[in-house]
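Researcher: Watch the backbone:
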Amino acid sequence: MATEWTELQRVVFPQDGDPDVLPLYVDTDVWARFGGREVRVSDRAHIDDVLGRRSFRVAAGERASFAAYFNAFPASYWQHWTVVDRIRLRVSATGSGTLLVYRSTAQGVQQRVTTEALETGAEATVELPVTTFGDGGWYWFDVVAGRDDIVVSDAVWETDVAPVSRGTASIGITTMNKPDYCTRTLEAIADDADLDDLVSRVYVVDQGTSLVADEPEYPEVSARLGERLQLIQQANLGGSGGFARSMYETLEAGDAEYLILLDDDVTIEPESIARSIRFSRFAKKPVLVGGHMFDLLNRPVMHAFAETVDLSPFMWHAQPHDEVPHDFRFGNLRQTKWMHARMDADYNGWWFCLIPVAAIREVGLSLPAFIKWDDAEYCLRAGAHGFPTVTLPGAALWHVSWLDKDDSIDWQAYFHARNRFVAALLHSPFPDGGRITDDSFRWDVRHLLAMQYYPITLRHRALRDILRGPAHLQQELPTILGSLRAMAKEFPEKTVLHDGDIPATVEGKKVFPLPLDGKPAKGPRGIRLAIFTARMSLRQALTKPAARNVAAPQVELAKRDGSWFRLPYYDSALVSTADGTGKVRYTRDPARFRRMIRESRRLHRELRRRWPELSKQYRDALPEITSPAAWRKTFDGE
């Protein structure tokens, strides 16, 4: 009986002719070691060498390496999480050349495995063990052309190990006024024939006023996806409400073993969807499989390799701390030693996350959080029930980065504060919440020193809502956003000023120079921080701002300079918005500072004092507020 080989990972190339993303698919450069570090000395591949989705040309006498994010094989993840203990690399080519296969260790040390000839009409196959990658390591291959060009026409990583499951996945996309992005994602899914047998349904949960159904391209893509596509319109319940709807519909349909959650403002690499499903099919036990996020506006840049939660202050972190964001233009896989170690994640963002339906049945649907922390809380909840999270290298998409957003000082400040505390009440192992209350109070102080009174108002509302108990989460989900936005009218700092409205400043512009590393300063630390905070808090609370600085802004600052450790020196300031469309005006208010700092102390003390009681309330209520029945009532507007 012939051996049955199952595809795990196709070698693919960019579809859109974008040279910026080529380093994610091919190691495009020749590197050499000078002065103890590797530097790029020449190019060896070009976007014109991409001849198709699965074919790549290597010029005569040249060498191309596929030691790249999307085309190397992350062996350590497959060894650790799946039943796969052996694979085969199969390469087809037109022309003659040489195939060189490499592996790496967890320390990023490169090792030659084997060398094979490549000839037209003959497949080169190399069988490889997946048994010595306990802490990390990848496989990849290089191709060296002979006297003439050689074209790699097809390459695949596959296994003859039987999968644990052969289930399909549904896809759930939550969208809010991003119909163009969403339609392009649907087109990418429809264009990839490999997904036809892997994806059983696609749910588009449209919560906006600019509808996907009104896009000119929608009728065609809808016809191509046919009965697999289901478009659902509902009130804006935030990301958590949209993703909960996809969870609910997947449970009701009962024909998928997995659900993949995708954000709307993304560009997807379709092969990533296939890889996440195949990885899940071979998993030793059901796992959540997440994808990495690249920057949609700076496409070679990855923002995190693994997401973790530090349980004491209960704050998320991108790992590895000092290495991300990572730009693949200046450090591809072979040059990036840390990327060879296997990194385990606590959670994965819901820009791209596969969830086993078995986990949804056991742990429930999304927390009714609207936005923020719903993904982290869900993965922590699933992990506590024995469903860990794996962020799989080679599975990724491009998403608009949060670096150009002001979400910590706009209406989202409420959700940042409330949902972080709710997640901690549900999952913190500390009887008093650990350091979260102290850390949250410090954030309040920083906002107040920066004259940012609107986000503090929302943060305090969030804490008061938490103290009311868990019932408010589902009850206020449909109305909370409008309420928060309405409160912004009371704060002049929330009015974005454009060119014709920007007043002249008293002292003029003051832009602080960037440090030598090109990164914004981080502010005082240690004893200097304590002295600075005490001195500036006294100034903010007890000194009256100069009348001329109230009448007109005292200074104009770039966004990077409008920080909590620079703004306190001024009575008022104009600060650029993160997206560069205008400026906002902050004005010091000593009476408001005193009132808000007192309220912040009171609320945080009460939260710490009542932590055991509140934790029990939220944990007891969790099964009910995340149940399909509770969500069904919210979907129906009851």
